Amino acid sequence: MKFGSIAVVAAAGALLGAVPASAQKARNVILFLGDAGGVPTLNAAGIMAHDRPQSLFIQSMPHVALSDTSSLNNWVTDSAAGMTAIMTGNKTNNGMVSALPSPDGGNKPLKTFLEYAEQRGLSTGVVTNMPIWDATPAATFAHVPSRKDKDQIFRQMLQPRFGDGVDVLIGKGQADAVASFAKDGVTPDQAFAKAGYRFGHDTALVGGAGRAAVLRDEDFAPIPAVEATLRQLSRNPKGYFLMVEWDMHTDDPQKGLRHAAEMDDMIRRISAIAGKDTLILFTADHSFGLRMRGGKRHAPMAQQQSAPMAQQYAEAAAKPGTTIASNPVISVEDTHTGEEVIAAASGPGANRVHGFLANTHLFDVMLAAMGWKKEN
Ligand SMILES: [Zn+2]
Questions:
Q1: Regarding beta strands 323-326 and 330-337, do their DSSP bridges make them parallel or antiparallel, or are they unpaired?
Q2: What is the pLDDT of residues 302-326, one digit of tens each?
Q3: Is 80 in contact with 135 (CB distance < 8 Å)?
Q4: Would you call 79 a catalytic residue per the annotation?
């Protein structure tokens, strides 16, 4: 009955193929955080980059939701409270980094998804085009009542509460690290080496065995850096968690929109190589006051921006919250805004991303994809 057994094998294969996506577990999670990457910014970035609407890779991701970004004490969040919600499942006050205010005036640390991963032996990585101590990356590994406490954030980076801490760190803030570690009488090289890192300014350090930290003060090419990070993290058979933040604040609209397109290219590339057992999430911590209000089809957006925008930013830089750039194509009010942002997802567990949801739900989505239970 050879044919019979082939039929049985085929049927079993069909059954395996029919396991609903919600029942499949992820081995890895990659969270792409577009800082200030609201819907208006994505819309304008796609048109600027490709001359057609909905042309971003993000806009082709199979599961999409609208995520509320309000914080515990404000309708409009800052990056600290915004990322705390996503990384810990708790809304907190603006300015607080993965910590809750407590009634005695102190603060209570909130366990982050990165810490859940470290505790379970996964590899972890944090890559950002902002300073590594800034609110968004800090909310993955640090717990401080004020996002401004740079010294404490650097200290906690090297004194993890779970596992051996973040395995790959890439970001800016080299000069800040020198100033902060000097207060403890050491150089960043000494401090990171003591904590078991290969440390330097070159992203080529990443990709091999062992832990690596790259701090620099200049921009770096995003795709090679994130590919090298994946190469390194995916050596761990238990899996990995990677958070990539790309700043896309449009207080300088040209720069912000270029960064949005840059991150989109990165997500397209990483989605192609990450493997089917990886939950990939894109979201923003909050939106921003950019509006597209004109522009003609078949005419490059940049050429239609007749107003001298650079001059306008300079003039308005001292007046946050005012309209800083206005021309026939876009206007920008220099402020975070409170409307929902998109969350887009692919991979195991991505089907939990749908409808209107709270940013805190994205923590639950990541936890459920890994099959982990929430601790209180
Ligand atoms: Zn932000």
A1: antiparallel
A2: 555 544 555 555 555 556 555 666 6
A3: yes
A4: yes
136 belongs to an annotated ligand binding site = yes
Structure confidence by residue, pLDDT tens digits, 264-309? 999 999 999 999 999 999 999 999 999 998 888 877 675 555 445 5
- Tell how far the Cα of 34 is from the centroid of ligand 1, in angstroms: 8
Q: Which fold has domain 25-293+307-339+346-370?
A: Alkaline Phosphatase, subunit A (3.40.720)
The answer to the question of whether 375 is labelled as a binding residue is no
Nearest CA to 375 out of 181, 80, 40, 88 is that of 88
Residue 343 region by backbone torsions, left for phi larger than 0, else alpha for psi between -120 and 50, else beta: beta
Q: Enumerate the H helices of 30-129 as residue ranges.
A: 39-50, 79-88, 113-119
CA atoms within 13 A on the CB side of 368: 16
167 annotated to a ligand binding site: no
Report CA(102)–ligand 1 centroid distance (Å): 24
Question: How long a stretch of residues is the chain?
Answer: 376
C-alpha 207 to ligand 1 mean position (Å): 28
Residue ranges per domain, the chain?
25-293+307-339+346-370
**pLDDT tens digits, one per residue of 179-206:** 999 999 999 999 999 999 999 999 999 9
Contact 243, 36 (CB under 8 A): no
Which residue among the candidates 71, 79, 123, 346 is catalytic per the annotation?
Answer: 79
